[in-house]
Design goal:
Helix content is 78%, strand content 0%. The protein contains 15 helices and no strands. The chain has helices spanning 2-12, 17-30, 34-48, 55-67, 71-84, 89-101, 105-118, 123-137, 140-153, 158-172, 175-188, 194-207, 211-224, 229-241, 245-258. The model has no long low-confidence stretch (mean pLDDT 94).
Length: 265
């Protein structure tokens, strides 16, 4: 096996750095042993420090720290990777993600922008920068540009249509544009994303006073995800507003069956 081969190499090698790096990769990505992977990356870094050849040890260790919620340690590792290789766009992207997680808005925007400067086709950097601009920086025009650029780069990607639709619905009140984006997203969506997109489109239909389509989208979303308490409560509100009191009560009771401690129900 790969594990046995690497272990044998470790016993024969005098310079263990590359073997520790490969063992870390094996445990991290194939064997799903994050703690063992972390130990091997520690060993590799201790032996080689800032050697350009082993910058991936910092990157991979940074991802492990991210996965375990140790964001400051992840920030240190991605920063070290940037020091070693300042022309690698991915290193800035990973650090930007940590900054975004920690609500370091300006730092996140700067790193996403550097990512894009180094790799203008990095669609996910546009998406993530757009989200930071939308949710944290209140830069709605910039967010719109970022989501649109991501769509241009990846026209079959679902999320930028959703985010641009949300931006047009919530901030710009550009309802026809939002509907166009949600329609595209629904067509592209996998089972994972479809229920939530249908809810967003339902809320838009409600704003456009299209009650029939609003209810149809809520019904389909619940059919796909019947244990979603929030969607049931949204539909219960719809029924209450339209004086469908029996249906409203049924949805509230179903939501309480899912979460008896719900304060919203």
């Amino acid at each position: 096996s790969s594990l046995e081969s690497y272990q044998k190499a470790l016993s024969l090698e005098s310079d263990f750095s590359i073997i520790h790096l490969k063992m870390g990769v094996l445990h991290q990505f194939e064997l799903q042993h994050p703690h063992l992977a972390l130990e091997h990356y520690h060993q590799c870094i201790a032996l080689q420090g800032s050697n350009h050849k082993y910058s991936h040890a910092f990157v991979n260790r940074g991802h492990l720290h991210m996965d375990s919620g140790k964001f400051e340690l992840a920030l240190d590792d991605f920063t070290e990777a940037i020091v070693i290789d300042a022309r690698q766009a991915g290193n800035y992207f990973y650090r930007a993600n940590v900054h975004a997680q920690l609500a370091h808005t300006e730092e996140a925007l700067k790193d996403y922008s550097t990512t894009i400067q180094l790799n203008a086709s990095h669609a996910q950097a546009y998406i993530n920068r757009g989200l930071v601009r939308f949710e944290n920086a209140q830069d709605f025009e910039g967010a719109l540009e970022d989501f649109s650029q991501a769509i241009e780069l990846q026209p079959n990607s679902v999320l930028p249509y959703v985010f641009r639709g949300d931006l047009n619905r919530i901030h710009f009140r550009a309802l026809p544009a939002a509907l166009e984006d949600y329609n595209k997203a629904v067509k592209l969506a996998t089972e994972e994303y479809r229920p939530s997109i249908l809810v967003s489109r339902a809320l838009l239909h409600d704003m456009m006073q299209n009650s029939e389509n609003c209810l149809a989208d809520l019904n389909e979303s619940i059919e796909l995800d019947p244990q979603n308490e929030e969607t049931l409560l949204i539909r219960s509100t719809y029924h209450f507003q339209h004086m469908h009191l029996e249906e409203c009560l049924k949805d509230v009771n179903q939501a309480l069956g899912i979460n008896p401690d719900s304060t919203e129900a």
